Amino acid sequence: MSMIRDLREAVRPTLRKNSAPYSGGLYGAYDATRDPSASSAVVDCAVYRDGKRVSDTACQTPHEAMLRVREGGGFAWIGLHEPTEEEFAGIAAEFGLHPLAVEDAVHAHQRPKLERYDDTLFTVFKTIHYVEHAALTATSEVVETGEVMCFTGPDFVITVRHGGQGSLRNLRHRLQDDPELLAKGPSAVLHAIADHVVDGYIAVADAVQDDIDEIEIDVFSAPSKGSTRGTDTGRIYQLKREVLEFKRAVMPLLRPMQLLSERPMRLVDPDIQKYFRDVADHLARVQEQVIGFDELLNSILQANLAQATVAQNEDMRKITSWAAIIAVPTAVCGVYGMNFDHMPELHWRYGYPMVLVGIVAVCLTIHRTLKRNGWL
Protein backbone atom coordinates (compact mmCIF):
# COMPACT_ATOMS: atom_id res chain seq x y z
CA MET A 1 0.00 0.00 0.00
CA SER A 2 2.84 2.38 0.72
CA MET A 3 4.24 1.83 -2.78
CA ILE A 4 0.89 2.72 -4.38
CA ARG A 5 0.66 5.78 -2.15
CA ASP A 6 4.13 6.87 -3.26
CA LEU A 7 3.19 6.43 -6.92
CA ARG A 8 0.03 8.43 -6.41
CA GLU A 9 1.95 11.29 -4.83
CA ALA A 10 4.53 11.16 -7.62
CA VAL A 11 1.96 11.84 -10.35
CA ARG A 12 -0.43 14.14 -8.51
CA PRO A 13 0.27 17.77 -7.55
CA THR A 14 -0.02 18.36 -3.85
CA LEU A 15 -2.76 20.90 -4.30
CA ARG A 16 -4.28 20.72 -7.77
CA LYS A 17 -6.10 24.01 -7.51
CA ASN A 18 -2.99 25.95 -6.62
CA SER A 19 -0.36 23.99 -8.54
CA ALA A 20 2.06 25.92 -10.69
CA PRO A 21 1.87 25.48 -14.48
CA TYR A 22 4.00 22.65 -15.83
CA SER A 23 6.76 23.25 -18.28
CA GLY A 24 6.06 22.46 -21.92
CA GLY A 25 8.36 19.41 -22.04
CA LEU A 26 6.31 17.52 -19.47
CA TYR A 27 3.19 17.38 -21.62
CA GLY A 28 4.63 15.53 -24.58
CA ALA A 29 1.69 15.73 -26.99
CA TYR A 30 1.03 19.42 -26.39
CA ASP A 31 4.49 20.77 -25.62
CA ALA A 32 4.50 24.51 -26.29
CA THR A 33 7.88 24.19 -28.03
CA ARG A 34 6.80 21.37 -30.36
CA ASP A 35 6.21 21.71 -34.09
CA PRO A 36 2.50 22.62 -34.58
CA SER A 37 2.37 20.49 -37.75
CA ALA A 38 3.46 17.35 -35.90
CA SER A 39 0.84 14.70 -35.11
CA SER A 40 -0.72 14.81 -31.66
CA ALA A 41 -2.68 12.36 -29.54
CA VAL A 42 -5.02 15.20 -28.49
CA VAL A 43 -7.82 15.28 -31.08
CA ASP A 44 -9.98 17.88 -29.32
CA CYS A 45 -9.76 20.08 -26.24
CA ALA A 46 -12.53 22.38 -25.09
CA VAL A 47 -14.04 24.11 -22.07
CA TYR A 48 -17.82 24.12 -21.51
CA ARG A 49 -19.73 26.56 -19.35
CA ASP A 50 -23.51 26.48 -18.91
CA GLY A 51 -23.71 23.83 -21.62
CA LYS A 52 -21.93 25.90 -24.24
CA ARG A 53 -18.46 25.55 -25.67
CA VAL A 54 -16.19 28.44 -24.75
CA SER A 55 -14.69 29.99 -27.86
CA ASP A 56 -11.19 30.73 -26.69
CA THR A 57 -8.31 30.52 -29.12
CA ALA A 58 -5.89 30.45 -26.18
CA CYS A 59 -7.45 27.21 -24.95
CA GLN A 60 -5.39 24.83 -27.12
CA THR A 61 -3.86 22.47 -24.56
CA PRO A 62 -5.26 20.49 -21.60
CA HIS A 63 -3.27 22.67 -19.20
CA GLU A 64 -4.68 25.86 -20.69
CA ALA A 65 -8.19 24.34 -20.61
CA MET A 66 -7.91 23.64 -16.90
CA LEU A 67 -6.68 27.16 -16.26
CA ARG A 68 -9.86 28.48 -17.93
CA VAL A 69 -11.99 26.10 -15.81
CA ARG A 70 -10.33 27.23 -12.57
CA GLU A 71 -10.73 30.86 -13.52
CA GLY A 72 -14.32 30.82 -14.76
CA GLY A 73 -15.89 27.45 -13.87
CA GLY A 74 -17.39 24.84 -16.14
CA PHE A 75 -15.54 21.71 -17.15
CA ALA A 76 -12.95 20.61 -19.69
CA TRP A 77 -13.43 17.80 -22.20
CA ILE A 78 -10.19 16.45 -23.63
CA GLY A 79 -10.24 13.77 -26.32
CA LEU A 80 -7.19 11.63 -27.14
CA HIS A 81 -6.52 8.88 -29.64
CA GLU A 82 -4.01 6.13 -28.79
CA PRO A 83 -1.63 8.26 -26.70
CA THR A 84 1.81 6.97 -25.75
CA GLU A 85 3.08 6.89 -22.18
CA GLU A 86 5.11 10.03 -22.79
CA GLU A 87 2.16 11.89 -24.34
CA PHE A 88 -0.17 10.95 -21.48
CA ALA A 89 2.26 11.55 -18.62
CA GLY A 90 1.70 15.30 -18.39
CA ILE A 91 -2.09 14.99 -18.60
CA ALA A 92 -2.05 12.35 -15.85
CA ALA A 93 -0.04 14.67 -13.63
CA GLU A 94 -2.20 17.70 -14.38
CA PHE A 95 -5.46 15.95 -13.52
CA GLY A 96 -4.15 13.69 -10.75
CA LEU A 97 -5.05 10.42 -12.48
CA HIS A 98 -4.24 7.18 -10.70
CA PRO A 99 -1.20 5.30 -12.11
CA LEU A 100 -3.15 2.05 -12.46
CA ALA A 101 -5.88 3.73 -14.49
CA VAL A 102 -3.27 5.54 -16.59
CA GLU A 103 -1.56 2.24 -17.37
CA ASP A 104 -4.88 0.72 -18.48
CA ALA A 105 -5.69 3.74 -20.65
CA VAL A 106 -2.34 3.70 -22.44
CA HIS A 107 -1.99 -0.03 -23.05
CA ALA A 108 -5.68 -0.76 -23.83
CA HIS A 109 -7.04 -4.31 -24.30
CA GLN A 110 -8.98 -3.95 -21.06
CA ARG A 111 -12.18 -5.60 -19.91
CA PRO A 112 -15.22 -3.25 -19.71
CA LYS A 113 -15.36 -1.97 -16.16
CA LEU A 114 -16.08 0.91 -13.79
CA GLU A 115 -13.54 1.89 -11.13
CA ARG A 116 -13.38 4.78 -8.69
CA TYR A 117 -10.11 6.42 -7.70
CA ASP A 118 -10.73 9.11 -5.09
CA ASP A 119 -12.60 11.86 -6.95
CA THR A 120 -12.30 10.28 -10.42
CA LEU A 121 -14.38 7.62 -12.15
CA PHE A 122 -12.56 5.44 -14.68
CA THR A 123 -14.81 3.66 -17.18
CA VAL A 124 -13.79 1.28 -19.95
CA PHE A 125 -16.08 0.65 -22.92
CA LYS A 126 -15.58 -1.84 -25.75
CA THR A 127 -16.76 -0.40 -29.06
CA ILE A 128 -18.09 -2.77 -31.72
CA HIS A 129 -18.20 -2.10 -35.46
CA TYR A 130 -19.91 -4.39 -37.99
CA VAL A 131 -17.66 -5.24 -40.94
CA GLU A 132 -19.60 -5.30 -44.17
CA HIS A 133 -18.98 -8.33 -46.40
CA ALA A 134 -20.41 -9.50 -49.71
CA ALA A 135 -20.70 -13.11 -48.52
CA LEU A 136 -19.99 -14.78 -45.21
CA THR A 137 -17.05 -17.18 -45.51
CA ALA A 138 -15.00 -19.30 -43.12
CA THR A 139 -12.51 -16.41 -42.80
CA SER A 140 -14.87 -13.40 -42.80
CA GLU A 141 -14.38 -10.75 -40.14
CA VAL A 142 -17.86 -9.87 -38.88
CA VAL A 143 -17.16 -7.52 -35.96
CA GLU A 144 -14.25 -5.20 -35.24
CA THR A 145 -13.59 -4.02 -31.70
CA GLY A 146 -12.06 -0.89 -30.24
CA GLU A 147 -11.96 0.76 -26.83
CA VAL A 148 -12.99 4.03 -25.24
CA MET A 149 -11.69 4.89 -21.77
CA CYS A 150 -13.30 7.75 -19.88
CA PHE A 151 -11.88 9.61 -16.89
CA THR A 152 -14.69 11.57 -15.23
CA GLY A 153 -13.89 14.13 -12.55
CA PRO A 154 -15.77 17.01 -10.94
CA ASP A 155 -14.57 19.49 -13.57
CA PHE A 156 -13.12 17.43 -16.41
CA VAL A 157 -13.72 14.55 -18.81
CA ILE A 158 -10.82 12.79 -20.53
CA THR A 159 -11.65 10.28 -23.26
CA VAL A 160 -8.98 7.95 -24.61
CA ARG A 161 -9.88 6.06 -27.76
CA HIS A 162 -8.12 3.00 -29.20
CA GLY A 163 -8.81 1.51 -32.61
CA GLY A 164 -9.91 2.95 -35.92
CA GLN A 165 -13.62 2.89 -35.05
CA GLY A 166 -15.71 4.58 -32.37
CA SER A 167 -14.95 8.23 -33.12
CA LEU A 168 -16.61 10.63 -30.66
CA ARG A 169 -16.54 13.67 -32.94
CA ASN A 170 -20.20 13.43 -33.98
CA LEU A 171 -21.19 12.69 -30.40
CA ARG A 172 -19.45 15.87 -29.23
CA HIS A 173 -21.30 17.90 -31.86
CA ARG A 174 -24.67 16.41 -30.84
CA LEU A 175 -24.03 17.26 -27.20
CA GLN A 176 -23.05 20.81 -28.12
CA ASP A 177 -26.42 21.11 -29.84
CA ASP A 178 -28.13 20.27 -26.50
CA PRO A 179 -26.82 22.87 -24.00
CA GLU A 180 -29.44 21.97 -21.40
CA LEU A 181 -28.09 18.41 -21.15
CA LEU A 182 -24.44 19.41 -21.41
CA ALA A 183 -24.96 21.89 -18.57
CA LYS A 184 -25.32 18.89 -16.22
CA GLY A 185 -21.53 18.56 -16.32
CA PRO A 186 -19.08 15.70 -16.92
CA SER A 187 -21.61 13.00 -16.00
CA ALA A 188 -23.70 14.08 -19.00
CA VAL A 189 -20.73 13.33 -21.25
CA LEU A 190 -20.21 9.96 -19.57
CA HIS A 191 -23.85 9.06 -20.16
CA ALA A 192 -23.69 10.19 -23.79
CA ILE A 193 -20.64 7.99 -24.40
CA ALA A 194 -22.31 4.98 -22.74
CA ASP A 195 -25.48 5.53 -24.75
CA HIS A 196 -23.47 5.93 -27.96
CA VAL A 197 -21.57 2.67 -27.36
CA VAL A 198 -24.73 0.69 -26.50
CA ASP A 199 -26.56 2.07 -29.55
CA GLY A 200 -23.66 0.70 -31.58
CA TYR A 201 -24.21 -2.70 -29.96
CA ILE A 202 -27.88 -2.66 -31.02
CA ALA A 203 -26.99 -1.89 -34.64
CA VAL A 204 -24.36 -4.64 -34.73
CA ALA A 205 -26.78 -7.13 -33.12
CA ASP A 206 -29.32 -6.49 -35.89
CA ALA A 207 -26.66 -7.02 -38.59
CA VAL A 208 -25.36 -10.22 -36.97
CA GLN A 209 -28.96 -11.49 -36.79
CA ASP A 210 -29.13 -11.19 -40.59
CA ASP A 211 -25.95 -13.27 -40.95
CA ILE A 212 -27.32 -15.96 -38.64
CA ASP A 213 -30.61 -16.04 -40.56
CA GLU A 214 -28.67 -16.49 -43.80
CA ILE A 215 -26.69 -19.42 -42.41
CA GLU A 216 -29.82 -20.97 -40.91
CA ILE A 217 -31.57 -20.88 -44.29
CA ASP A 218 -28.54 -22.41 -46.03
CA VAL A 219 -28.24 -25.23 -43.51
CA PHE A 220 -31.89 -26.25 -43.45
CA SER A 221 -32.68 -25.72 -47.14
CA ALA A 222 -32.67 -28.69 -49.56
CA PRO A 223 -29.13 -29.37 -50.84
CA SER A 224 -28.53 -28.61 -54.49
CA LYS A 225 -27.51 -31.36 -56.87
CA GLY A 226 -23.90 -32.35 -56.37
CA SER A 227 -23.54 -30.49 -53.06
CA THR A 228 -22.72 -32.20 -49.77
CA ARG A 229 -23.89 -31.46 -46.25
CA GLY A 230 -21.37 -30.15 -43.78
CA THR A 231 -19.82 -27.57 -46.11
CA ASP A 232 -21.19 -24.70 -43.90
CA THR A 233 -19.36 -25.81 -40.75
CA GLY A 234 -16.47 -23.39 -41.28
CA ARG A 235 -18.81 -20.43 -41.76
CA ILE A 236 -20.84 -21.32 -38.68
CA TYR A 237 -17.74 -21.68 -36.55
CA GLN A 238 -16.30 -18.39 -37.77
CA LEU A 239 -19.54 -16.56 -37.01
CA LYS A 240 -19.60 -18.19 -33.57
CA ARG A 241 -16.09 -16.84 -32.89
CA GLU A 242 -17.19 -13.34 -33.90
CA VAL A 243 -20.27 -13.58 -31.66
CA LEU A 244 -17.97 -14.60 -28.82
CA GLU A 245 -15.96 -11.40 -29.39
CA PHE A 246 -19.22 -9.46 -29.30
CA LYS A 247 -20.20 -11.24 -26.09
CA ARG A 248 -16.93 -10.27 -24.39
CA ALA A 249 -17.73 -6.61 -25.02
CA VAL A 250 -21.35 -6.70 -23.86
CA MET A 251 -21.45 -9.02 -20.86
CA PRO A 252 -18.98 -7.27 -18.47
CA LEU A 253 -20.49 -3.82 -19.13
CA LEU A 254 -23.92 -4.59 -17.68
CA ARG A 255 -22.78 -4.44 -14.04
CA PRO A 256 -21.08 -1.00 -14.38
CA MET A 257 -24.20 0.42 -16.05
CA GLN A 258 -26.36 -0.95 -13.25
CA LEU A 259 -24.08 0.67 -10.67
CA LEU A 260 -24.25 4.02 -12.45
CA SER A 261 -28.05 3.80 -12.64
CA GLU A 262 -28.73 2.51 -9.12
CA ARG A 263 -25.98 3.61 -6.72
CA PRO A 264 -25.81 7.33 -5.82
CA MET A 265 -22.43 8.80 -6.79
CA ARG A 266 -21.10 12.22 -6.01
CA LEU A 267 -19.70 12.61 -9.53
CA VAL A 268 -22.98 11.65 -11.25
CA ASP A 269 -25.78 14.20 -11.39
CA PRO A 270 -29.05 12.69 -10.01
CA ASP A 271 -30.92 13.79 -13.14
CA ILE A 272 -28.33 12.08 -15.35
CA GLN A 273 -28.47 8.92 -13.25
CA LYS A 274 -32.03 8.34 -14.45
CA TYR A 275 -30.78 8.22 -18.03
CA PHE A 276 -28.30 5.48 -17.15
CA ARG A 277 -31.29 3.24 -16.38
CA ASP A 278 -32.34 3.47 -20.01
CA VAL A 279 -28.82 2.58 -21.14
CA ALA A 280 -28.77 -0.40 -18.75
CA ASP A 281 -32.12 -1.60 -20.14
CA HIS A 282 -30.89 -1.42 -23.72
CA LEU A 283 -27.69 -3.19 -22.77
CA ALA A 284 -29.66 -5.96 -21.03
CA ARG A 285 -31.66 -6.46 -24.21
CA VAL A 286 -28.50 -6.72 -26.30
CA GLN A 287 -27.04 -9.14 -23.77
CA GLU A 288 -30.07 -11.41 -24.16
CA GLN A 289 -29.70 -11.22 -27.95
CA VAL A 290 -26.02 -12.16 -27.85
CA ILE A 291 -26.68 -15.08 -25.53
CA GLY A 292 -29.46 -16.18 -27.90
CA PHE A 293 -27.05 -15.89 -30.86
CA ASP A 294 -24.57 -18.15 -29.13
CA GLU A 295 -27.18 -20.79 -28.30
CA LEU A 296 -28.74 -20.63 -31.76
CA LEU A 297 -25.36 -21.04 -33.47
CA ASN A 298 -24.68 -24.07 -31.25
CA SER A 299 -27.96 -25.59 -32.41
CA ILE A 300 -27.27 -24.77 -36.06
CA LEU A 301 -23.78 -26.24 -35.81
CA GLN A 302 -25.10 -29.44 -34.22
CA ALA A 303 -27.86 -29.70 -36.85
CA ASN A 304 -25.33 -29.19 -39.64
CA LEU A 305 -23.05 -31.90 -38.25
CA ALA A 306 -26.04 -34.21 -37.80
CA GLN A 307 -27.04 -33.65 -41.43
CA ALA A 308 -23.50 -34.43 -42.53
CA THR A 309 -23.57 -37.65 -40.48
CA VAL A 310 -26.93 -38.66 -41.99
CA ALA A 311 -25.60 -37.97 -45.49
CA GLN A 312 -22.55 -40.13 -44.80
CA ASN A 313 -24.78 -42.93 -43.47
CA GLU A 314 -26.90 -42.76 -46.63
CA ASP A 315 -23.78 -43.03 -48.77
CA MET A 316 -22.57 -45.99 -46.76
CA ARG A 317 -25.93 -47.76 -47.17
CA LYS A 318 -25.80 -47.28 -50.93
CA ILE A 319 -22.26 -48.61 -51.09
CA THR A 320 -23.24 -51.60 -48.94
CA SER A 321 -26.30 -52.29 -51.13
CA TRP A 322 -24.28 -52.35 -54.35
CA ALA A 323 -21.64 -54.49 -52.68
CA ALA A 324 -24.38 -57.02 -51.77
CA ILE A 325 -25.63 -57.09 -55.37
CA ILE A 326 -22.13 -57.53 -56.79
CA ALA A 327 -21.44 -60.32 -54.30
CA VAL A 328 -23.90 -62.65 -56.12
CA PRO A 329 -22.08 -62.85 -59.52
CA THR A 330 -18.76 -62.79 -57.68
CA ALA A 331 -19.72 -65.89 -55.66
CA VAL A 332 -21.15 -67.79 -58.63
CA CYS A 333 -18.23 -66.99 -60.90
CA GLY A 334 -15.85 -67.91 -58.09
CA VAL A 335 -17.44 -71.38 -57.74
CA TYR A 336 -17.44 -72.16 -61.45
CA GLY A 337 -13.92 -70.88 -61.83
CA MET A 338 -12.40 -73.62 -59.65
CA ASN A 339 -11.83 -75.98 -62.69
CA PHE A 340 -13.05 -79.23 -61.08
CA ASP A 341 -14.04 -82.08 -63.44
CA HIS A 342 -17.19 -83.07 -61.58
CA MET A 343 -19.40 -79.98 -61.10
CA PRO A 344 -23.21 -79.63 -61.47
CA GLU A 345 -24.35 -78.88 -65.01
CA LEU A 346 -20.74 -78.39 -66.13
CA HIS A 347 -21.26 -80.16 -69.49
CA TRP A 348 -24.93 -79.20 -69.97
CA ARG A 349 -25.59 -77.32 -73.21
CA TYR A 350 -27.76 -74.66 -71.52
CA GLY A 351 -25.76 -74.45 -68.29
CA TYR A 352 -23.91 -71.20 -69.13
CA PRO A 353 -26.97 -69.13 -70.17
CA MET A 354 -28.97 -70.52 -67.22
CA VAL A 355 -26.27 -69.42 -64.76
CA LEU A 356 -26.28 -65.93 -66.29
CA VAL A 357 -30.06 -65.74 -66.10
CA GLY A 358 -29.93 -66.92 -62.49
CA ILE A 359 -27.34 -64.30 -61.56
CA VAL A 360 -29.37 -61.51 -63.17
CA ALA A 361 -32.59 -62.69 -61.49
CA VAL A 362 -31.02 -62.84 -58.03
CA CYS A 363 -29.36 -59.42 -58.48
CA LEU A 364 -32.65 -57.84 -59.61
CA THR A 365 -34.45 -59.35 -56.63
CA ILE A 366 -31.88 -57.99 -54.19
CA HIS A 367 -31.95 -54.58 -55.89
CA ARG A 368 -35.74 -54.41 -55.70
CA THR A 369 -35.75 -55.42 -52.04
CA LEU A 370 -33.11 -52.84 -51.05
CA LYS A 371 -34.83 -50.08 -53.02
CA ARG A 372 -38.17 -50.88 -51.36
CA ASN A 373 -36.48 -50.58 -47.94
CA GLY A 374 -34.96 -47.22 -48.81
CA TRP A 375 -31.35 -48.30 -49.12
CA LEU A 376 -31.10 -47.36 -52.79
Helix and strand layout, with pairings?
Blueprint: H1 2-11, E1 42-49, E2 52-53, H2 62-72, E3 75-81, H3 85-95, H4 99-107, E4 113-117, E5 120-130, E6 143-152, E7 156-162, H5 169-176, H6 179-182, H7 186-220, H8 233-250, H9 254-262, H10 270-336, H11 351-372
Parallel strand pairs: 3-7
Antiparallel strand pairs: 1-2, 1-3, 4-5, 5-6, 6-7
What topology, given as strand order, has the largest sheet?
A: 2-1-3-7-6-5-4
Helix percent reads 40-55%
Query: From N to C, what is the helix and strand string?
Result: HEEHEHHEEEEHHHHHHH
Give the biggest beta sheet. Answer: 7 strands, mixed
Main structural class: alpha+beta
Poorly predicted tracts of residues = 1-38
Number of helices: 11
Mean pLDDT: 82
- Note the beta-strand portion: 5-15%
What is the radius of gyration computed over CA atoms, rounded to a whole number of angstroms?
A: 35 Å
Assign an overall shape. rod-shaped
Give the strand tally: 7
End-to-end distance: 77 Å
Can you put this structure into words, describing what you see?
- The protein is built from eleven helices and seven strands.
- It has a seven-stranded mixed sheet, with helices on both faces.
- Helix 7 (186-220) packs parallel to helix 10, helix 8 packs antiparallel against helix 10 (270-336) and helix 9 runs antiparallel to helix 10 (270-336).
- The termini are far apart.
- The protein has helices spanning 2-11, 62-72, 85-95, 99-107, 169-176, 179-182, 186-220, 233-250, 254-262, 270-336, 351-372, and strands at residues 42-49, 52-53, 75-81, 113-117, 120-130, 143-152, 156-162.
- By secondary structure, it is an alpha+beta fold.
- The model is unreliable at 1-38 (pLDDT under 50).
